[in-house]
Structure formats: structure tokens, C-alpha cells
Design a protein that fits this description.
The protein contains 24 helices and 24 strands. By secondary structure, it is α+β, with helices and mostly antiparallel strands. The chain has 5 domains: about 60 residues, Helix Hairpins, CATH 1.10.287; about 230 residues, DNA ligase/mRNA capping enzyme (D-amino Acid Aminotransferase, Chain A, domain 1); about 80 residues, OB fold (Dihydrolipoamide Acetyltransferase, E2P), CATH 2.40.50.140; about 160 residues, 5' to 3' exonuclease, C-terminal subdomain (DNA polymerase, domain 1, Orthogonal Bundle); about 70 residues, Rossmann fold, CATH 3.40.50. It has a 5-stranded mixed sheet. Strands 14-13-12-16-17 form a 5-stranded antiparallel sheet, with no helix packed on it. The protein has a 4-stranded antiparallel sheet with strand order 5-4-7-8. A hairpin with a 5-residue loop joins strand 12 and strand 13. It is globular and about 95 Å long. The relative contact order is 0.07. The chain binds 2-(butylsulfanyl)adenosine (IVH). 2-(butylsulfanyl)adenosine binds next to strand 3, strand 8 and strand 11.
Length: about 675
């Protein structure tokens, strides 16, 4: 097969799997197999750029960075809907529909879920997605084509029969709750501002100028209405949804054709109860007259169609009083303020506490203790404060200077950070996570010190900081559940062995914020001994190429604490290795070797990785040849990967590479 044919056939296969997954909800292959197809296609396209195409599935990984968005003018306005807030209002609408049609005329309805996302318009010309834009003001929207193209559910090329020459498909871009929670967790780790809900994170994602980031956000799409259209006549809304599916465009599978209005109401009631079971947020139902001819006769008001209505689920809100503000210390040391409320019922649940998220939020709400507040149980079950409805309180909420759990220092690490955190490594609230990290394979590698052992050691009060691990006795360990002689012996010997770990591993194991494996390695190489690092000044750290000022500040904060000094002394007394073995140049496992990198590395920028291998006496080259000793392949490796395979050159992944760098042996 020619390369061009191979590329075409891979594209076709991938499109077919997208259709099976997103439209039919019947995936046929595993995610890994799918990724494999994508990778093969990417490799071929990279090696033969003349066959690249704007609607190849590989564009979904995004890439290009835009300076800003152009605007798009709609041929047919993107309208919004009238709302009903009760079943009575819904019935009033039904009456109006009948009044505007002939007496006794039969009307069928389609009841759809009202997706709580961001609406978008996709324009397909001659089967291909040409432009995708946000709603904007309804008349003009923002051209977000490159971002929308990263959404796997959006076909880049239509399939099936009777594809219209031109069609504007409207629908909702959204994010599953799970994905949103995950995204916020990552943002919290990086000290970034959190998104309030999946809708905000969807809208934030669509406005990103770097589509590479958007592609990692796993947005989804369901279509539900039609804009400008040139094609075979469409007779009903139900038929239209079906046609979209045939053309490869996903729609929400829960729409229902209702022959009576009682059915409509029963269906709304059903989803009002069941909506939590969905993986995404909906904020109501949309009811549409099914017959397009009837729709045309009903027409539009200035703002919205007369043939459709949004039924909004009742707001789950209540007002009450803030009695007190408490501070919670999370496992990463983040201090989260929570409001203790005068108990109040909200949609069937008694609410006594509500998270205030962070101190910026308190400032935004201008909240004081004693205020009356409006609370809401939004899409997710966790209640939140919407606003202060009565500024009754006088007592301002202060940001604690010391941790409520351990009195450790509370700091905000960067000016633009939202989170305040306790940085005492022995804070009981953080110790569990800290110990697990300390003992983990890439840190001190203490086998047998997993979740259950750590939890028990803490509960029994046997370990209060990392140094205590090195005083554990077999008598003490025998108190742990399921710890018999052999297990105790193994754990004690793993603990002993870990004392000899390299300084870089020890620095990493301490869990200093922002100091990952690579930074720990750089610090160990630079300072050579723990004491030099402990007494380093900000300028000493800041002047190291790989250590930024944020990390330098974090290291200074960490070592300036009394509890850290005690910990370091404890570790010294227990005989841990505080010195870095420094390889004489010419004697490392990498010396004289030729290394080539391909693909994206997670931990290292390409230039840093090359710098590291050079420092270990190796040569970092950009092309693979017979003389290459090994290739380090990150994610989405390029043609160098294939070249290496062809030449039989050893290929290693990033994990293995990190291990070589860390331990100095290949
Ligand atoms: S139909 C002319 N169907 O709700 C009819 N809209 O307030 C256009 N929405 O802007 C809309 N799910 O963002 C329709 N199944 C659905 C919907 C839906 C969510 C959103 C859409 C629209 C807003 C209307």
C-alpha cells in the first residue's frame, strides 16, 4: 500500500471508531488500541508532511497558539429560549402552542435534557467542518475552530448518506463532572484559581489560545438544533436528531418523543429526580414541538422561538446565617475556610456547613461572621454560598497566621496563588500523605510502607515525623495488624536500606513544595551535601539555572521552620546519607554515550534533559544513527522513534531515563 493510502486508511479507521464511541456509545477497541492507531498516523504524517490535512484526526491533539479569536457572523441568529420555572408555567406554554395552531390539532413534543455547558455552532460545508464558533451575542460569535477540533465527539468530516451541502449544527460543549473535579485538583496543586463549575471550566477552556491545552481537557459535545441549512427537507425534530447521528454527530441519547403533554411533564419530573446520576450537569429540560411545519407556523418572538421552551429545575437554594468560620487543613496543607451555618433545609437536605473554597472567595462575597447568606446546592451535591443577602455581621474573617492543627507557619507561596497553606512537614494533617510520598518507590523506596502501614503507624502514634521511621522497633511493628515476623523483618530491613539512598532522593522525599525529582537532583548535584542546602540563601538558590524564584522561596520557607530543623537533625542522628555521590567526569554510566530524545517528556523540558545527559558525560544528538546508544521516547514520539526501531537502537521511556539520571547507571 502506498503511504498516502496507508494514511487515508488509518484516518478512516479512527473516524469509524470515533463514531462508534461517541454516537453509538458502542466502542469496539480499547483506549490503548485507539491511541496506537493515532500514534501510527501521527508518525506517518510527520514523516510525510505533504499528506497533512486540516481534518485529519491528528489535529485533535491541538498545537498552534493563536493571538486572539476572529469573529464569525451567523447567517441565522443563534436564539435563546424562554424559560418556565414550574409545571404550571409549562402547561401555560402548551396552551399558547395550541392557541396559535388550529383547534384540536395534534401536537407531539420532543423532550430533551438541557445541557449546562456552552453553546456552539458548527458549520459543515461539503461534508467538512469549516468553522466552529461560540454563541457570542447570537449574531456574531468567536471563531474557536481549532479548539473545537480537539473535541473527539465533533466529527471533522461527516459520514453517511444525504449529507447536506451546507449545514449549521448547534449544540452544547460540556465537561463531565469527573473531568472538572480532576482539572480543579490539578489547578489546586499548581496554586491556580479554581473553576466554580463544569460550565465555567468549559467556557474557560474554549477561550484558551493554545489548542494543545484544550485537547487535554476532554471536552464533549451534543448537538440539538439547526441553523442555516441546504439539503433534503427535514420533517421533525426527532428525525433531525436521528439524521445528525447518521451523519456522525452525537446527540444526547435521552431525548424522548412524547405524544401527550402529560408524558412531557412526567419526563421532566423523572430527570429532575435522576439528574445526579448523569456524569454531566443539566439545569433543566428543553421541550420542542416535534413537527417542523408546525414549528414554522408557530414562528418566533423577538428573542426566542414559540415552538420551544426551557423548563428550569427548581433552584435548590435557601437562606440562613453564618455562625462561625472554621479552618480545615487538607492533606496538602491547604487551609480551606468553611462556614458553620444555622441549620437550614435545602432541597430535602439539612445543611449545617458549607465550604467557602478560599480566602479570595470570602473577599469576593464580602462575608463577615453573622451575615445572612443565600446558599445553593448546584449541579453537584456540595452546597455553596451564592451571595450575602444581609450584611448583619461585624466580625471580619481573618486569614490565620498559624495552622489550626499544628501552629506551623501558614504562607501564600506566590502572590498570584489563591491557596494559603501550612508548610510544617510534620503537621498531622499532612503527615499521612507526606509519609507515603517519603516511602514511595521514587523517593526513599521503603517497600512495605504502604497506605495501611502508614495509617496504622499514625493511629498508634508511633510516627510523628519522617525521622521516627528510623527508630521503629520490631516490638512496635508487631502491634500492626497482619504484621507477622517475616513482614516485620522485611520492613525493618527496607527502612535500614533506605538510609543509603542518594541525597537527591532524600531531598525529593522531604516533599518540599515545587521540588520534584528533577529539581531535587539539580539541588543535590549543586550543593553536594544536605548542610550546604540547609544553609543556602535565597540568592544562592535563585542563581541556579534550573531553580526558579518560586521554588527558591519555597525551599527557604521550608528550611527556615523550627520543625524542619528538628527533622533534619533527627534524620542525621539516625545515620541517613546526607552526601551526594558525585561522578567524576568520564566515569558515569552515560559517559561517552550518544543519546537522542523524541516526543514530549513530562518531567523535563527537552533542553534540560539534554543538559543533564551532557553533564553526565554523554552526547545529546538530534538525529538517530547507527552510532546512537539509545533513544529516549516521550509521549507522541516522532519519526526518530521509527528510525531507532529500524536501526535496532535501544529505546527507553521517560521513567527509565529518570532512573538513569537519578542513579547514574544505565
Ligand atoms: S435548543 C432555538 N436544546 O439552552 C433553540 N438548547 O436558553 C435553540 N441548551 O442557548 C436552543 N440544552 O445553550 C436547545 N437540548 C437543548 C439544549 C439547549 C442546552 C442551551 C443552549 C441555549 C440555551 C437556551
Amino acid at each position: 500500500m502506498t503511504t498516502r493510502k496507508q494514511i487515508e486508511s488509518l484516518r478512516e479507521k479512527i473516524r469509524e471508531h470515533d463514531y462508534k464511541y461517541y454516537v453509538l456509545s458502542m466502542p469496539e477497541i480499547s483506549d490503548q488500541e485507539y491511541d496506537g492507531l493515532m500514534r501510527r498516523l501521527k508518525v506517518l504524517e510527520d514523516a510525510h508532511p505533504q499528506y497533512k490535512s486540516a481534518d485529519s484526526p491528528t489535529v485533535r491533539v491541538g498545537g498552534g497558539i493563536l493571538r486572539g479569536f476572529k469573529t464569525v457572523r451567523y447567517r441565522q441568529k443563534m436564539l435563546s429560549l424562554d424559560n418556565a420555572y414550574s409545571f404550571d408555567e409549562l402547561k401555560d406554554w402548551e396552551e399558547r402552542v395550541h392557541k396559535n395552531l388550529k383547534k384540536g390539532e395534534m401536537v407531539e413534543y420532543v423532550a430533551e435534557l438541557k445541557m449546562d455547558g456552552v453553546s456552539a455552532n458548527l458549520t459543515y460545508e461539503k461534508e467538512r467542518l469549516s468553522v466552529a464558533a461560540t454563541r457570542g451575542d447570537g449574531q456574531t460569535g468567536e471563531d474557536v475552530t481549532s479548539n473545537i477540533k480537539t473535541i473527539r465527539a465533533v466529527p471533522l468530516v461527516l459520514r453517511g448518506r444525504g449529507i447536506p451541502e451546507f449545514i449549521e449544527v448547534r449544540g452544547e460543549v460540556f465537561m463531565d463532572r469527573e473531568e472538572f473535579t480532576q482539572l480543579n485538583k490539578e489547578r489546586e496543586k499548581c496554586g491556580e484559581v479554581l473553576f466554580a463549575n463544569p460550565r465555567n471550566s468549559t467556557s474557560g477552556s474554549l477561550k484558551l489560545l493554545d489548542s494543545g491545552i484544550v485537547s487535554r481537557r476532554r471536552l464533549k459535545f451534543f448537538a440539538y438544533s439547526l441553523g442555516e441549512y441546504k439539503g433534503e427537507r427535514i420533517l421533525t425534530q426527532g428525525g433531525f436528531l436521528k439524521k445528525l447521528n447518521d451523519w456522525g454527530i452525537p446527540t444526547n441519547p435521552n431525548s424522548k418523543l412524547c405524544r401527550t403533554f402529560d408524558e412531557v411533564i412526567a419526563y421532566c419530573r423523572l430527570w429532575q429526580e435522576k439528574r445526579q446520576k448523569l456524569p454531566y450537569d443539566i439545569d433543566g429540560m428543553v421541550i420542542k414541538v416535534n413537527d417542523i411545519k408546525q414549528q414554522e407556523r408557530l414562528g418566533f418572538t423577538l428573542k426566542s422561538p414559540r415552538w420551544a421552551l426551557a423548563y428550569k429545575f427548581p433552584a435548590r437554594q435557601a437562606t440562613t446565617e453564618v455562625l462561625k468560620v472554621n479552618y480545615n487543613v487538607g492533606r496538602t496543607g491547604v487551609i480551606t475556610p468553611t462556614a458553620e451555618l444555622k441549620p437550614v433545609e435545602c432541597a430535602g437536605v439539612i445543611i449545617k456547613n458549607v465550604t467557602l473554597h478560599n480566602f479570595d472567595e470570602i473577599k469576593r462575597l464580602r462575608l463577615k461572621v453573622g451575615d445572612r447568606v443565600l446558599i445553593e446546592r448546584a449541579g453537584d451535591v456540595i452546597p455553596k454560598v451564592v451571595k450575602v443577602t444581609g450584611h448583619w455581621g461585624r466580625k471580619a474573617v481573618v486569614i490565620p497566621k498559624n495552622c489550626p492543627e499544628c501552629s506551623g507557619k501558614v504562607v501564600k507561596e506566590k502572590e498570584e496563588d489563591v491557596a494559603y497553606r501550612c508548610i510544617n512537614p510534620s503537621c498531622p494533617a499532612q503527615l499521612e500523605r507526606g509519609l507515603l510520598h517519603f516511602a514511595s518507590r521514587s523517593a526513599m523506596d521503603i517497600e512495605g510502607m504502604g497506605e495501611s502501614a502508614v495509617a496504622q503507624l499514625l493511629n498508634l502514634g508511633l510516627v510523628k515525623n519522617f525521622a521516627d521511621i528510623y527508630r521503629l522497633t520490631d516490638r512496635e511493628l508487631s502491634k500492626l495488624e497482619l504484621f507477622k515476623e517475616k513482614k516485620i523483618r522485611n520492613l525493618l530491613s527496607a527502612v535500614q536500606k533506605s538510609k543509603q539512598q542518594s541525597l537527591s532522593r532524600l531531598i525529593y522525599a522531604l516533599g518540599i513544595r515545587h521540588v520534584g525529582e528533577k529539581a531535587a537532583f539539580v539541588l543535590a548535584r549543586h550543593f553536594k551535601a544536605m548542610d550546604n542546602l540547609v544553609s543556602a540563601k535565597f540568592e544562592d538558590l535563585d542563581s541556579i539555572y534550573e531553580i526558579g524564584s518560586v521554588m527558591a522561596r519555597s525551599i527557604i520557607d521550608y528550611f527556615s521552620q523550627g520543625s524542619t530543623k528538628k527533622l533534619i537533625d533527627g534524620l542525621r542522628q539516625r545515620g541517613l546519607n546526607f552526601k551526594e555521590r558525585v561522578f567524576e567526569s568520564g566515569h558515569t554510566a552515560l559517559s561517552g554515550k550518544t543519546v537522542v530524545f523524541t516526543g514530549e517528556l513530562k518531567e523535563y523540558a527537552r533542553s534540560q534533559a539534554e543538559e543533564l545527559v551532557r553533564r553526565l558525560g554523554a552526547n545529546a544528538s538530534s538525529a538517530v544513527s547507527k552510532n546512537t546508544d539509545f533513544v529516549v521516547a516521550g509521549e507522541n514520539p516522532g519519526s526518530k522513534y521509527d528510525q531507532a526501531r529500524k536501526l535496532g537502537v535501544k529505546i527507553i521511556d521517560e521513567k527509565k531515563f529518570s532512573a538513569i539520571i537519578r542513579d547514574g547507571s544505565a
